[in-house]
């Protein structure tokens, strides 16, 4: 299972989008506080839409609580300070739990934590002058790399709601 870990996210819109992504890929969301907004806010629920009801969410009051709870977790730290590209890690074993940690929009993951686990710090390549990408985009990008390596196990790869022939049938009607 994929576990998305957000360290003190600052923007409710990003967090709502990440919630929606987690539900769509059956990932567990872990949020490390404290937060500057309420998880129960109507704005957050509006961004997450009706998906939030199906969200697997665990909230931690601080980093220490998360670390103590997940001492043996396989954690990848996603940061611009990594020397390895996120796609270089082997996530192909779909029976394992993988934790992907992302930092605050303004300051990222605490530098001491990155230094302590530097061999597990991964970056998303971008042009040298770019400081960062949007947090929810980063989560989707890295999570879908894990899913790609696992051949999208347990995810629909064809249209299920309207049926696989929806577009073909619409063309015949039109």
Question: Summary?
Answer:
The chain is of the alpha/beta class and 174 residues long.
Query: How many separate helices?
Result: 6
Assembly category: single chain
Radius of gyration: 17 Å
The ordered string of helix (H) and strand (E) elements is EHEHEHEEEHEHH
* Helix content, binned percent: 25-40%
Distance between the termini: 42 Å
Q: Roughly what is the average pLDDT, rounded to an integer?
A: 91
The secondary structure category is alpha/beta
Written description of the protein model:
- By secondary structure, the chain is α/β, with parallel strands linked by helices.
- It contains six helices and seven strands, in the order βαβαβαβββαβαα.
- The longest helix is centred in the last third of the chain and has 15 residues, at 135-149.
- The termini are far apart.
- The mean pLDDT is 91.
Chain-wise SSE layout:
Layout: E1 2-7, H1 12-25, E2 28-32, H2 42-48, E3 56-60, H3 63-69, E4 75-78, E5 84-85, E6 98-102, H4 111-116, E7 121-123, H5 135-149, H6 166-173
Parallel strand pairs: 1-2, 1-6, 2-3, 4-6, 4-7, 5-7
Which key phrases capture this entry?
about 170 residues, alpha/beta, 7-stranded parallel sheet
